[in-house]
Amino acid sequence: MPEFNRRNLVLASSILAFSFASAMPGYARGAAKSPAKPNIVIFLADDLSYADVPLGGDGNVRTPALQRLAAEGLSFDRAFVASPACAPSRAALLTGMMPARNGAEANHDRANAAIRKLPSYLQEQGYEVVAFGKVAHYQHTGTYGFDYYANDTFHDHKGIPAAAEWLKARKDKRPLALFVGSNWPHVPWPRTTEGYDPAAMKLPPKTVDTPITRDARARFYAAVTRMDQDLASTMDAVDAVLGKDTFVLYSTDHGTQWPFGKWNLYDTGTRVPMVVRWNGHVKAGTRTDAMVSWVDVLPTLVELAGGETPDGIDGLSFAGLLGVGKAAGGRKEIFTTHNNDGRVNVYPMRSIRTDRWKYIENLHPDWTYTTHIDLKVMRTDSGAYFPSWREATDKDPAAKAIVDSYYKRPAEELYDLQADPDEKVNLASDPRYAKPLSELRSRLAAWRKAQGDSGAVPVKPRFERGPMSGESD
């Protein structure tokens, strides 16, 4: 029998078997015995660091739905994205490949059309694969092969209720893989603090404390709480229609849009919250410090769906951490990359992170690091506080050190994460740490060579600090 026909016969048999099982009483409402092919729900938030939620230690913000999900599932304390910008991060998730290999290196880039995407792998296993909201980057969703998608434009908040209504009306008997993307807490943040007291909160490290900064931080927290409300309404629909035996994965696409978060390779830019709830497989209220990457989500979901880990991708399945398969799951090292976002955020950098060390290679230390936050012509209201940071440098040495470290980066950065989890003290020039520096430099170089990563950025760099020349704050 030709291979193509054999695959189709197996697929048809799987769908027929699933349709029979799904017609049994109690199946869709979470019967005691989990289905062979679990329904899958992936909920993605937008611009939120691990450090900025209670799971990561932030006591300021209210996220009752996320905390409830964590109480019912497994929390990953060391989950990382491939790149701290929306399009490259989401392309890595949906291809299982790092940016240099999938083609989406700059923000707004699209993954190579010839690369097989996650929906195709799940469809092969008999799944209906659907997306609502910001799952891929804005208006990129149609290129990923979903069976149906909607509401993938900027801050289109109709996607959350649309997903719930679609789910309640669904008649299809295939197993479901539902992707739901909230636009929160991506800027612009709410105009009011919505119950958060700017004066009462504790600011994160490497922050210049000014009144307008505190107001911005409070509005950011308001946006996080709106994300949490999106999660709550989505989970209400999922539990009512699909049942609590549904496999649910929550995560965020990269760090918060804050000066050392998004567009940075510090943990505040690449370390993200991730929670898995899966009754009967994952013990409620547990945590793991296994290191995983967003490229690992694709092979994990394929394995849970009954398929084999695809060849030729960068992702490694962590299904073993979820009680499936023999491999334990988790990585010894995490690689991350950043290039640019058109003519903004033009600052290519590469990083390797181990259990103890973080090494960052800034490919062009002669360029100036600038982003949407400090460039006046690009600044949304979330960056309105940055001029107050610049003004504070005249009288406050600590503020000057923070602002200078934002704009100018050395060629190499090395951090001892055990002693310095906030990555404040660069050890790269300290001869006592020459050995780990050399080893990490070599490992990163070898990885880049294997990836075919040239580091080229096809746009002009920036040399002046924002605001742009000829403008004033």
UniProtKB/TrEMBL annotation:
Signal peptide limits: 1-23
GO terms for MF: hydrolase activity
Assigned keywords, A-Z: Hydrolase, Signal
Region (Disordered) residue spans: 450-473
Enzyme class: hydrolase
Domain Sulfatase N-terminal: 38-306
Pfam families with a match to the protein in the record: Sulfatase
Documented EC number(s): 3.1.6.-
Name of this protein: Putative sulfatase
Lineage per the UniProt record: Bacteria, Pseudomonadati, Pseudomonadota, Alphaproteobacteria, Sphingomonadales
